[in-house]
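Weekly modeling sync, notes
Attendees: S.R. (lead), two postdocs, one rotation student

Agenda item 3: backlog of single-chain predictions. S.R. asked that every request posted to the team notebook include the full sequence so nobody has to chase files. The rotation student volunteered to paste the first one in as an example of the format we agreed on. Action items at the bottom.

Example entry:
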Amino acid sequence: MKISTKNEYGALKSVIVGRPDNANWPTGDAVFDAFLDLSTYERRLTKGRIPDKVVNEAREDLLDFINLLKDNGVAVHRPFITDWTKTFVTNQNITSGMHTYSARDLLLTVGNTVIECPTPFVSRQQEFDAYYDIRNEAIKDGCRWIAAPRATMRRTDFQILAGKVVLNEKYPVFDAANVMKFNDKLLYLLSGTANRTGAEWLQKVVGTEFEVIVRDDVYTIAHIDTTKESLNKDTVMLNAERVTEDNLPAFLKSHKKIWVKDCQERSFHQFPYASKWIGMNVLSINPETVVVDGIQTELIKQLENEGFKVLRSSLRQSRTLGGGHHCVTCDLERE
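Predicted structure, as returned to the notebook:
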């Protein structure tokens, strides 16, 4: 299994696609609870096993998505099916699990390296075991697979300031989905799921081959891929509600920019774990072809007007489970 990725748009050869099976909203996770408490949505999320209807719809949509990928020459790998309702002991935390639906969140592929990231969500630290077979095959074929120190995430390891989760700098914390790859640059979003110590640790790991560029002036809630998406070497898609010409990193100033002013809101079960902006969470199969949720008609029109071929793929539970096409995949090999 070859591991080779430096950007988000090179011709995709192989990928991990997550699973919704046995998805669960966890107990015992202080950061997860803090994000829920900060939500302005009128209803509360019910913890425990996520209903079968949600899981079944998500499974059906992912299987259709997988067939689409295979039809376009992409090899697909899947994590183990695990019962995430079970209780785990992780770094002295007692917690149930979540899911492997969003495979992008925890595994960062950079060059020939896979990094198991120091996620702030202790409920998700057991997820790495679901990639056991993928890990072994990749290592056998020459991959450098490393694990960051697991974050302990006591309640004293973060604060709530101005309605946001603010991590301290005691040790590295970040999700893989806080990072966007631009060939020799890694754009790293400081937020409630990533601290500056994590960026410094990542820079040491990737060495001089990549420059980690830290940003904290666009969106500070969670992940980067509902704010910025790299579509090819000259084009970036941007969330117009969060990004301006003034707060763009210098290396993106000369890129062609596709400004997304709004997204069609997907329905969700009980509680929206993702905002409407999950609609711009797209997956590039190659520099000319993008997979988009079919309900995003305005976005599709924008992309087609810019010369992109758009492949439509429904993800009915993207807001419920918190993942679009970029989230539910983890690139293994791109040309």
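Discussion: group reviewed the output briefly. Helices lie at 30-38, 52-71, 132-140, 196-206, 297-305, 318-321.
Action items: rotation student to repeat for the remaining queue; S.R. to check formatting next week.
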